[in-house]
User: Which sequence fits this backbone?
């Protein structure tokens, strides 16, 4: 496990030199900068690094540096003989082609060694243009992005050079790079520098120029003389000295800002869902940037020669949103394309391509014959409110209730659907809502059986309220897979007992005057409620009972003719069934739709978080035509009265489209097949079934889950599904409430992960829900990273 | 008024050829394509256009075309003698430099003439690289973006050409361009085409190659012979024929999709706030793209030789969000930078630069000493819920109410704060909420005096309920400016009467058992309620009375010691005052904060819509430290229980930062000074006060407002402030309710604007609120466009 790291030290000044074209003078600028730095900071303090170089040694850039700045430390990490693009040269070399991560690791090691020597400068020169491919073929702009070394862009002073410079600048910015300065030769004919100075002035990017070097001389000695004289002349040029001072200042400002931003945040930010009295500035993580699965976070206690930034695995997937890695260039380009094509455009009574294409893609991929309509909003909470408005209206009209009737939600204990007040009202009172002034839980929430692995055994725990009905306290299974084999479990005694229990409960509720307008569930896993894995058979049975018996049960009017409960493919019966898939959907649990794990089709389905791959807020509430029809009227005000200004904003829709396409592509091409079969199977066997994902699979290995479940002294249970791992810890002795949201039982484990892996080269940043520790991967996390995390967690639990 | 138009015709196939570098063979590809098209579609049908060309005629690209494809129609619009970048050549020419809009208009006219000839092909060749500046200095990628002509990118086959091609591609995508194909020469040494084919395969961008042309020959006749032979050989190459067929198909797909998407939307989209039974497919606008202030919309009834796309002024500023123009490249790049640097990162207990910098920028610019904290959410509605949660808690704790006490909002009739249920509950029953199942208005909403211009006279209308207290039905003013001179109006008889009335009302409400937890106002203008301009003196007085007498009034407990009502700079008194500036803030009404028009500082302020300049959803709720302190406790669950997954998403924060910086820059440099003084004043006078914006100003001229107000037969009143113009129309004879949301009185005017301006070259897309017609400009709309709209509106009203 070798996560990419950003490069930042307190005393070593690291800069990366990029070219806006080939042959724009990168090496000359590098040499000039090195010489200028040597003059002001003594030559031992200055170093030059060419990570990847092509061409015969005496033609290479480092040769030029060695010739004209012989005092400067000068290294090349990967040298290829053939003078062409590194990816081609690497192939032709016949040597093993280094992975991107290996190239980054080598650069970091090199820089760390320089940093250990104390203060100084390190200039890293790239090869060719910003997108020239590295040895593996990855364009350098992507390859080096995680390092976030401040960029110096050498502009193109030739004909057409304005265009090359602007395009290269934009490609760097797209990767979150800070371009600290543009440097280019003065050219009296084209005067590109004048244009560029004006252009970049509003963005506060300074443009520095030096005279053009002399014409290249074919005679080596004459060339040496004239270039020597050129560098000599430059040494009295103030321009590079100014640039160095400017770079030094910007770098100091960056470190300063990073080191003070937690205090500033403490003073100005009002944090979400956070008791700030209990959050000191030192507990706030300053995030410099993020790439792939890792934040690059400030290490506040780094010694003066240690790296200031450290990779931290984003173990909460940034509040469950991350799907395709931080800084994913495909998502960035999708966002930028939509921003350029539309900005935001009004959605009411109009239509644009990303919104329509996304609606079509969602409806197609859900494979739910009921769903026919897509309503857009901004987040899971608003999307659940929309779903609620939809369902309540449909139910009220069918059952003939008046607008004043108190109609509630039928749900499960511990459900949570978001923080807006309407969404809060969809949940029973609990720590997330009961202190909120206008909160009034509207409905009833049933207790339900849950699933966990405990001491190597998968078991379904039956809550007390059901135990009498079921005549037992639980059931055990060979594997999680078996728990989800609903076709086999339906018809069992447990199933019958679930049916009876649910029907009795509903009859009791209705007899007490309850009116319900929706069955609202988070299918399979209740997220914020504590990562509770529900027995899928119970959820399935609940839906079935509501649909088969609901019309008779819930109708309180005799005046209206009701559709019978015969199963319809598209019309709702009993109650509109809402699945809140905000957390569980879109491959989080391994399936496009978590509903498919239950084998039922909801009438309304809510999707957010992963929808945009983890980039910008967007929510889609999908509904059936029969729900939609409830709002059709000749009266404008009977419409669904909801609509945010940025409804269906093109940037979000385009990113979501790209994100769904990419995840579907990954599934289809077997990118997750390493996780589809138990680890005992041979790779060949796994290869065979690359395109057939099992119903139940997880990136967290079953061996690891088994191992964790046996740490009986500390663990109450564990489960893993898709990218999610959840561990319920036994409450600590000091815990007030024993368990639940207020417990601090999982904090030890969390703290242990934050202190990092074996070699201290990375840490893991996780969130806990009371005594539940959870961690999740993105859909891009590789096997090595997951196994590295497993090792860290196992060690922490066994300590 | 000459809005930029996208180019699309039913039969004419228009494509634009871009270079990823200079000297990559654009002209050779153009010639090859023209010849191939001529072969298959007859030469009369094929045309070549070089909008801007530099160099002596016999060196120009059109010369090459004329030489080797003499049958092809071949035009140049702007020819400059000096062979350098068009912006430099234009300067050197001594001729007047054409505006970007003039260049676009010429291209469109030219293409329209070709389209009038029937089916065919038109290839438009750009100059230099994608960012090479046009005559005005605007990079071509920006200059030509509004045309959205499908792009053919000529890749660079030379050393370093991979980088140049990828960077150019990204710069085009950033402008919302569809790159239909990449074309480049085969080069056996570098084989860039092989890399590019692999690279672009997942994005479905085909890469076409042809052999390299022969070495250039200094002898003209030899050159002519060898190039002639080259083109002859190419004519049997299938590659260009395939490309043409592919282009033709993609273009047909585009038109097909545009023409069917309204029907598809009718079938799959559930529209926000829309009674879809009353919305036929033909009423849905298909938006192809948008640039600046204009959508590019499908003209469904375009004749076969007429343009399929037409610019439509975005008169609702896309539901009040648009600030800096659609497709603004600065905002796009800001979004892309944050996406590349972070994606989204977890915000609870962490901090990142865009969120912190935006918080600091907002707090600084509000110039409100009370505000000290920033809470992020996703839209105005959630931000108002957050504000409500904040205020209710603060009030409840101070006044010692229990969590079960029914605490409401004190507001104004017609207020509206968003569509989530909690935000709906902050408003009195009305057409937007009363049919929503869980809606229960919580609070009381006072009637209030309103402002309008009527028959040339500015007047304040007093609602009936207040007339007895005031002893009159209204007041008249010389100008709107005078209405806002609160320093002069405070102390007047009206002010005293307002005070007395408000105090009496509050006493009456409290005596009836009302408990209030917040005073919540949209300062100055109530948006969704019908663009109602409130008398600022009344709103100001309301805040003052609540603050000065509130503690005594609202406290229902005698057990708690209350802070006295002495005015504090930072602590709240009476009630926490919430200003919902979602619509009115951030320069929409001409001022950074609309509160400054009232001269009071709220304790909580909500900002969204314009916050991101009109790109992505984001909301900031600002609050005072005394409000924040109400949530401090040793108990986690006393925290503010709100927090969306994408809280403070870096893309939104970075775009907002860029947007606020740009709007502040525009204000400081007097970009709006043309609108700051009445039109009677001379330009010189206006120049003098370029940096001093008056308190009250509007882009809509006072002459125009005066003119509209005198159309007495149709108009009840009109006002203009900042970028907003609102006209209340008299209800039509057929209107059921007479006025209000259900009225259709404004629909005629709306329909008239949709049918467009004089020459049919553009239309205006507006929204209405019942009998209120409104239109707003963005912060980038220029004077000519506003005056053009004024002319259109005046004509429509006088018809």
Assistant:
């Amino acid at each position: 496990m070798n996560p990419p790291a950003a490069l930042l030290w307190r005393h070593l000044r690291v800069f990366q030199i990029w070219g806006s074209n080939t042959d724009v003078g990168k090496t000359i600028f590098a040499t000039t900068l090195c010489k200028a730095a040597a003059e002001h900071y003594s030559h031992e303090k200055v170093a030059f690094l060419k990570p990847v170089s092509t061409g015969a040694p005496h033609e290479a850039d480092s040769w030029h540096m060695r010739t004209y700045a012989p005092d400067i430390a000068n290294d090349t990490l990967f040298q290829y003989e053939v003078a062409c693009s590194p990816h081609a040269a690497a192939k032709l070399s016949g040597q093993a082609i280094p992975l991107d991560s290996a190239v980054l690791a080598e650069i970091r090691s090199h820089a760390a060694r320089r940093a250990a020597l104390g203060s100084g400068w390190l200039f890293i020169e790239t090869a060719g243009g910003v997108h020239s491919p590295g040895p593996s073929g990855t364009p350098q702009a992507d390859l080096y992005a995680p390092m976030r070394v401040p960029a110096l862009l050498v502009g193109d002073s030739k004909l057409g050079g304005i265009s090359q410079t602007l395009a290269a600048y934009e490609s760097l910015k797209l990767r979150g790079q800070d371009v600290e300065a543009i440097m280019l030769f003065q050219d009296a004919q084209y005067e590109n520098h004048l244009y560029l100075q004006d252009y970049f002035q509003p963005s506060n990017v300074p443009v520095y120029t030096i005279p053009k070097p002399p014409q290249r001389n074919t005679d080596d000695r004459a060339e040496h003389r004239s270039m020597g004289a050129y560098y000599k002349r430059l040494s009295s040029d103030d321009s590079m000295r100014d640039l160095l001072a400017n770079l030094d200042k910007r770098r100091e400002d960056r470190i300063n800002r990073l080191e003070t931003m937690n205090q500033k945040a403490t003073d100005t930010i009002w944090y979400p869902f956070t008791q700030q009295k209990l959050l000191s500035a030192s507990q706030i993580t300053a995030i410099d940037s993020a790439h792939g699965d890792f934040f690059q976070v400030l290490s506040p206690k780094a010694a003066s020669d240690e790296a200031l930034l450290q990779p931290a695995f984003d173990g909460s997937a940034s509040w469950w949103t991350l799907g395709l890695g931080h800084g994913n260039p495909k998502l960035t380009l999708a966002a930028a394309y939509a921003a350029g094509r539309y900005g935001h455009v009004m959605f009411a009574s109009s239509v644009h391509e990303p919104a329509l294409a996304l609606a079509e893609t969602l409806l197609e991929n859900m494979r739910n014959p009921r769903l026919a309509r897509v309503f857009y909003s901004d987040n899971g909470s608003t999307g659940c409110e929309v779903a609620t408005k939809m369902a309540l209206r449909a139910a009220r009209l069918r059952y003939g209730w008046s607008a004043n009737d108190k109609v509630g939600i039928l749900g499960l204990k511990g459900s949570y659907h978001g923080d807006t007040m309407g969404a809060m009202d969809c949940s029973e009172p609990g720590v997330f809502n009961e202190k909120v002034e206008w909160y009034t839980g509207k409905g009833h929430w049933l207790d339900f059986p849950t699933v966990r692995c405990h001491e190597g055994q998968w078991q379904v725990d039956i809550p007390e309220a059901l135990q009498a009905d079921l005549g037992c306290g639980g059931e055990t299974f060979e594997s999680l897979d078996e728990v989800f084999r609903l076709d086999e479990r339906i018809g069992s005694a447990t199933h019958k007992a679930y049916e009876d229990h649910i029907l009795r409960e509903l009859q009791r509720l209705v007899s007490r005057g309850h009116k319900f307008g929706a069955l609202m569930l988070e299918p399979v896993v209740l997220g914020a409620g504590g990562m509770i894995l529900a027995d899928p058979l119970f959820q399935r049975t609940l839906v079935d009972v509501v649909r088969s018996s609901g019309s008779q049960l819930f109708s309180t009017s005799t005046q209206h003719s009701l559709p019978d409960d015969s199963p319809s493919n598209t019309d709702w019966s009993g109650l509109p069934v809402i699945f809140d898939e905000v957390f569980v959907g879109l491959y989080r649990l391994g399936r496009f739709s978590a509903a498919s794990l239950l084998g039922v089709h909801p009438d309304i389905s809510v999707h957010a978080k992963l929808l945009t791959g983890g980039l910008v807020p967007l929510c889609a509430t999908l509904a059936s035509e029969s729900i939609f029809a409830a709002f059709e009227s000749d009266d404008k005000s009977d419409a669904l009265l909801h609509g945010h200004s940025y409804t269906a904003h093109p940037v979000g829709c385009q990113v979501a489209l790209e994100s769904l396409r990419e995840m579907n592509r990954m599934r289809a091409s077997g990118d997750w097949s390493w996780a589809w079969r138990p680890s005992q199977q041979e790779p060949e066997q796994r290869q065979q079934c690359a395109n057939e994902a099992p119903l139940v699979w997880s990136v967290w290995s079953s061996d690891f889950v088994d191992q964790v479940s046996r740490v009986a002294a500390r663990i109450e249970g564990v489960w893993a599904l898709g990218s999610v791992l959840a561990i319920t810890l036994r409450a600590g002795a000091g815990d007030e409430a024993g368990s639940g949201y207020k417990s601090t039982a999982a904090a030890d484990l969390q703290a242990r992960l934050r202190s990092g892996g074996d070699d201290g080269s990375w840490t893991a940043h996780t969130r806990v829900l009371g005594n539940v520790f959870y961690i999740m991967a993105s859909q891009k996390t590789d096997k090595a990273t997951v196994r590295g995390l497993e090792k860290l967690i196992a060690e922490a639990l066994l300590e």
In short: Chain A has 26 helices and 28 strands. Chain A touches chain B through 176 residues (CB under 8 Å).
